[in-house]
Amino acid sequence: DSGVTQTPKHLITATGQRVTLRCSPRSGDLSVYWYQQSLDQGLQFLIHYYNGEERAKGNILERFSAQQFPDLHSELNLSSLELGDSALYFCASSPTGLLNQPQHFGDGTRLSIL
Amino acid sequence: AQKITQTQPGMFVQEKEAVTLDCTYDTSDPSYGLFWYKQPSSGEMIFLIYQGSYDQQNATEGRYSLNFQKARKSANLVISASQLGDSAMYFCAMREPQNTGNQFYFGTGTSLTVIP
């Protein structure tokens, strides 16, 4: 158990809809990261938050947004969903944002778009 | 250019033997971190080992060691005494600094199968 909690574990929805994925980092971790893992594109870094502030952006679509709340949990919002958004979405956390700190991953949310 | 390259889509190893999983990386930043993660069929991502760009010695964690060749930009994972539970996908990743945070890149992974 990594200590990172992601909900829900599975999500099935239709094209055009909007969903929210939730992540609770390990106790004491200030940094939260979001990733998308799909068969065709592999594991893609989406965004990094540190103590409520956005720190780095990766391959995150404009239809996607994220935030980190004062209690440090984070949400990833996906809107106008397309079939290609079907993927496993991971949240990870680390104590701060230092280069040498490994990230600890949650079990992921599997999103299926019908 | 790809930031992380893993050229072995699939590897097989006999139980109790050692295996090397290849990883090369591309960066012009002198400061970076290299990581290996394991993803079993159950889907979770498990951190294995870390190597910093300024580390003089190769990192080791139990049966895992990282063969770091900086000039060649390679960071191969060596698993000694393979066990059946080592069968999984293995991902090499690099972290490099941006202005305000860090950017992360993962390779496409190597599927390792341990044969009894």
Keywords:
heterodimer, A: 114 residues, mainly beta, seven-stranded mixed beta sheet, 0% helix, B: 116 residues, six-stranded mixed beta sheet, four-stranded antiparallel beta sheet, 12 strands, globular
Q: What's the short story on this structure?
A:
The complex is a heterodimer of chains A (114) and B (116). Chain A has 114 residues and is mainly beta. Chain A has strands at residues 5-7, 10-13, 19-24, 31-38, 42-50, 53-57, 64-68, 74-78, 87-94, 104-105, 109-113.
* Strand content bin of chain A: over 45%
Q: Helical region count of chain A?
A: 0
Sketch the major β-sheet of chain A: 7 strands, mixed
- Biggest interface pair, residues each? A-B, 25 and 27 residues
Q: What is the global morphology of chain A?
A: globular
What oligomerization state is this entry in?
heterodimer
Estimate the strand proportion of chain B. Answer: over 45%
Order of helices and strands of chain B: EEEEEEEEEEEE
Main sheet specs of chain B: 6 strands, mixed
Q: List low-confidence stretches of chain A.
A: none
Radius of gyration of chain B: 14 Å
Computed structural class of chain B: mainly beta
Query: Approximately how much helix is present in the residues of chain A?
Result: under 10%
**Order of helix and strand elements from N to C terminus of chain A:** EEEEEEEEEEE
Radius of gyration of chain A over alpha carbons? 13 Å
How far is it from the N-terminal to the C-terminal residue of chain B, by CA?
38 Å
General form of chain B = globular
Distance between the termini of chain A: 31 Å
> What structural category characterises the helix and strand content of chain A?
mainly beta
Give an account of the 3D structure:
The complex is a heterodimer of chains A (114) and B (116). Chain A is globular. With 114 residues, chain A is mostly beta strands. Chain A is built from no helices and eleven strands. Chain A has strands at residues 5-7, 10-13, 19-24, 31-38, 42-50, 53-57, 64-68, 74-78, 87-94, 104-105, 109-113. In chain A, strands 2, 4, 5, 6, 9, 10 and 11 form a seven-stranded mixed beta sheet that branches. Chain A has a four-stranded antiparallel beta sheet with strand order 1-3-8-7, with no helix packed on it. By secondary structure, chain B is mainly beta. Chain B is built from no helices and twelve strands. Chain B has strands spanning 4-5, 10-14, 19-21, 24-25, 33-39, 46-52, 60-61, 64-69, 74-79, 88-97, 102-106, 110-115. In chain B, a hairpin with a 4-residue loop joins β8 (64-69) and β9 (74-79). Chain B starts with a strand and ends with a strand. The mean pLDDT of chain B is 93.
